[in-house]
Write a structure and sequence with these properties.
With about 425 residues, this protein is mainly alpha-helical. It has one domain: Growth Hormone, Chain: A (Up-down Bundle), CATH 1.20.1250. Helices cover about 80% and strands about 0% of the residues. The chain is built from 17 helices and no strands.
């Protein structure tokens, strides 16, 4: 008699097909983030009658609310996926992203556009469910590699999103959102008819504990699992430091190096390609050779070095020399996810990913004002300080702190995950 595959490890062909869909979902989410970079501020500016200062204030509000929605909704979606399965939550999130882009495309007023951004924050939280799906269908020893491939979705999105938004935005500021909505609709239909469920009923939680389906409940989840708390803090410090570039990069590079939009586009391209190369060709071999703990340490150490170069570089050429070092930060999330998912049973993978998403939401709320205001202060005092890269230097220190903490807490995972 031919033995049946275990529930935790589906046949390789099924795993590959399912992972392809999850990767596509993550890619569309990343594109949705990237497409906002050249388009959303200009659309906001159009709504406020061309007032740049007012547009900047509204843009800060949009960014902050997006992070708050990530913080609030990540744990909820994660727990719902533990109870009802990954597939319905993913389909709901992707469909919500489709509706969000339609809001963006046809918003008649600024409040409607703001509502679309709120929806984007909710649906972008589907990353927690997507990562839980990856943990379900991937053997523990292969998770870091697959999480690395998921990370490459950000690299592709960082290339495709701004490029797509810029090109289509020349035709109409609304057109990029219509195209993105169409991609989401195709993805949702594919998932509806093709995507299998990864979490069988017998491995789901018996009920949703609403007392824990919130950010404070996430902290309780960590307190009950001390072996996760330190790793979660490492992830938060990493995510907080990472927000420095989205927060100030365009202003910083223009102020210090005089970079034009064309040079910025080439920089986005170089950064995105380097991230893809690390995710596709570096994560797997590094994890195989030095383990998940070694990947985390190498990624954080290289990231701290890359940010240090970014902060001190007197010209653009030296700045670009930091790109390869910073690209190795692509090792951090796969290593952390590999270590953390081994410490949690299958019925709690969604909640774990919700916690991870929630911490990312906090970083998205705290990071922009922290680094943006620091940059403004550094520019105003540049005559005496001569350090416009001060916020990036702070981010480098956060990476270094995460590196030192990892030495203590990123211990090898147990051979068997707890129930």
């Amino acid at each position: 008699m031919v033995s049946q595959p275990t529930l935790t490890t589906p046949p390789r062909a099924a795993r590959t097909a399912a992972f392809g869909f999850i990767f596509g979902s993550a890619l569309i989410n990343a594109i949705s983030f990237g497409i906002m970079i050249p388009i959303l501020p200009n659309l906001i500016k159009q709504f406020v009658g061309g007032d740049t200062a007012a547009a900047s204030e509204w843009n800060v509000l949009f960014s902050t609310v997006w992070g708050v929605m990530q913080f609030v909704c990540g744990p909820i979606l994660g727990m719902l996926s533990d109870r009802y399965g990954r597939r319905p939550v993913l389909l709901l999130s992707i469909s919500g992203l489709f509706v969000d882009f339609l809001f963006m495309a046809f918003a008649p007023t600024l409040p409607w556009l703001f509502l679309g951004r709120v929806l984007n924050g909710v649906t972008a939280s589907s990353f927690s469910t997507a990562n839980a799906y990856v943990a379900d269908i991937t053997p523990p020893q292969e998770r870091a590699r697959n999480f690395g491939l998921m990370g490459s979705a950000f690299g592709f999105g960082f290339i495709i999103g701004p490029t797509l938004g810029g090109v289509l935005g020349e035709i109409s500021l609304r057109l990029p959102f219509i195209v993105a909505a169409g991609l989401c609709l195709i993805n949702a239909l594919y998932g509806l008819f093709i995507l299998p469920e990864s979490l069988p009923p017998e491995r789901r939680t018996p009920a949703v504990n609403w007392a824990r389906a919130n950010p404070l409940g996430s902290l309780r989840f960590l307190r009950e699992r001390p072996q996760l708390g330190g790793l979660a803090l490492v992830g938060f410090l990493y995510q907080l430091g990472f927000t420095v570039l989205p927060a100030i990069f365009v202003l910083y590079s223009g102020y210090r190096y005089g970079w034009t939009p064309a040079i910025l586009g080439l920089t986005f391209l170089a950064t995105g390609v380097s991230q893809i190369l690390v995710a596709a060709f570096v994560v797997g071999p590094v994890v195989k050779r030095v383990g998940e703990r070694g990947a985390v340490l190498l990624g954080l150490g290289s990231g701290a070095l890359g940010l240090l170069i970014y902060s001190l570089a007197p010209n653009g050429w030296i700045y670009m020399a930091g790109v390869p070092a910073f690209a190795l930060t692509g090792l951090v999330n796969p290593g952390l996810q590999g270590l953390m998912t081994r410490r949690v049973g299958p019925q709690h993978q969604g909640q774990l990913q919700g916690v991870f998403q929630s911490f990312q939401g906090i970083a998205s709320v705290v990071g922009p004002p922290l680094f943006g205001l620091t940059f403004a202060w550094a520019v105003r005092h540049d005559g005496a300080l001569h350090q416009p890269g001060l916020p990036i230097l702070i981010a480098s220190a956060l990476f270094l702190g995460a590196f030192l903490l990892s030495i203590r807490v990123a211990t090898p995972a147990p051979a068997t995950a707890p129930a």
